[in-house]
Write a structure and sequence with these properties.
Blueprint lengths: L5 H4 L13 H4 L8 H12 L7 H8 L1 H33 L6 H10 L3 H4 L2 H39 L5 H16 L4 H26 L18 H12 L2 H7 L1
Helix pairs in contact: 3-10, 4-5, 4-11, 5-6, 5-11, 6-8, 8-9
GO molecular function: L-amino acid transmembrane transporter activity
Membrane topology: Multi-pass membrane protein
GO cellular component, one term: vacuolar membrane
Amino acid sequence: MKEVPENRQKTLRNSEKVDYFDPFLERNLEHPTTNGETLTHLLKASLGTGILAMPLAFQCSGLITGVFATVFVSFVCTYCSYSLVKCAHTLYRRTRVTSMSYADVAEVAFANGPKWSRNLSSVTRQYVLWLLFITYFGTCSVYTVIIASNFDQLFTYHMGYELNLRSFIAMLLIPLILLSYVPNLKYLAPVSMVANLLMATGLGITFYYTLCDVPNISERPAMGSFETFPTFFCLTVFAMEAIGVVNLRY
């Protein structure tokens, strides 16, 4: 794991006067992304094809509960992203470091916090890294299955016979690995833009057919059961969560 420099570990007393430090003017990136490119990445990460699972989420929560709960989950996700960015900006100036990863922010926040928290900084870093790994390993696995399922349906429709779903997942392995080897978000911006356009087109077509012959709203339950609400919560977070991407730019 990457070690955090010593200057990040220094705790600044409130009585100390710190000269103004602008991390964005001091930041020297070889291939910085523009605001438009950053927005493209955030849209791709936040509003992915997980939106297609929202009808199932509303089925689990009920229409009325689903609307208010979706607004609440959206607010929580946005607030958490905002808090992460604000904390990172504060720590940039305190430690005079121009950029930090999500795990760096967690570690440095504990290292510059109360005395009881300073010894937990390294543990906190590992904890955040493991949570990010679990989150995005699961997310990418689900998206791989979604992509393979779409190819499977197209193949079956046009060829007239089926292949094992795992065969399509194996075929996707090489292009996915090659995309993962692109180290720079600047180079991935055109890919994200094309993906956003294709996703918007696909969602538009899907919503068109979904909204045709919509049944009466009174036929749908307004409230869901408590047992299925966790499923709603998971699907909603899956559809809009992008905390791992937020701090890469800001």
